[in-house]
Amino acid sequence: xxxxxxxxxxxxxxxxxxxxxxxxxxxxxxxxxxxxxxxxxxxxxxxxxxxxxxxxxxxxxxxxxxxxxxxxxxxxxxxxxxxxxxxxxxxxxxxxxxxxxxxxxxxxxxxxxxxxxxxxxxxxxxxxxxxxxxxxxxxxxxxxxxxxxxxxxxxxxxxxxxxxxxxxxxxxxxxxxxxxxxxxxxxxxxxxxxxxxxxxxxxxxxxxxxxxx
Length: 213
Known about the structure:
The protein has helices at 70-85, 106-112, 145-158, 160-164, 206-212, and strands at 8-9, 14-20, 57-62, 90-95, 117-121, 169-176, 180-181. The strands form 2 sheets. A 5-stranded mixed β-sheet has the order 4-3-5-2-6. It has a two-stranded antiparallel sheet with strand order 1-7. With 213 residues, it is an alpha/beta fold.
């Protein structure tokens, strides 16, 4: 390891966007990005013919990142494209900064119908997605998020056991982050000894065990 380089963590994070199979009504105010949100509905009034007679659907999308984050900007663009492609009959309103659901509760809240779409970090749900989380195990060599995302989808599509972990949801998206690095405002971290005595914030799951060790 070159001391001029920051110590890297060759771990990736499995993240997903999932929707509950059964959506319940939820009246919430928007936290930004997509305007105001009313009750999720599978039917709407129409006064004309053609597309106007089709039902309207409104969904909430819960994120623990703020609506100004790159993830939220991406999802807002996705929501806008969905709305455009459906002539406004499908509206997805983003709620960031865990306003609708804490990061550790979003999976349960999607299943319960408290939110209709949730963005979740699988490692926050110990024991719930163990096969999906194989991508988070240390020392496996993944660092390129495109490669690891393709591996995730291959696992999901080829192994029923992996797909079964998502049986309570409609899985809309599954992807991995790149390898993480240590970031500090003080002295650079270039070796294991530099980590001793520091207060560290880290993701959940296998990476926590590695840093603890």
